Amino acid sequence: MDKEKKEKEEGRSERLEVPPINDLRMELAREEARYEFRKALLNIAGILAVVAAIAALVMTRVLILLQVNGNSMAPALEDAEIVILHQTKEVEPGDIIGFYYGGKILLKRVVGSAGDEIDMDEDGNIYVNGVILDEPYVSEKKQGKYDQEFPYRVPENMVFVLGDNRAVSLDSRVKSIGCVEDGQIVGKAVFRAWPFGRIGRLRY
Description:
The chain is α+β, with helices and mostly antiparallel strands.
């Protein structure tokens, strides 16, 4: 009798113990949480891939990153800064534009449009249609290097451009550069992307 009782007790000890229902619920909740986390990661990865694709498309079709070369646009734009150009042909006086010249993209400021009469006095003041141009972006007015005859009438489908740093800039005052044709225009500088301390929208 004792032997039979002992065998029954040993048999019970070898049976699989069923964990409490609360433990099962907790384990199920953990598995569901892991599944939801993996699902969320896949969704985020998919969204990032779409955003990256859109950004690449925008950057190649609408926006252009351009590094400033030289100080002809100082103090508005300094050497080695990085700006973003919005590709457009619709520019107006006051805009900083990028345009093709000699296989490079130059950055200058539009001061006159087709039909405008541009003049410059000995102090470097610029006149548009007889009115002196207010230029808060110019730190020091200079005649700089020029061989253009003033007053000068801007031809059709062109704009007259100047660098803000008049002492060193080569621009529409020089006949070899002259006015910028519509077909040369790449776009309008709208945002400074670098350096970190000067990141922000370019205001005119």
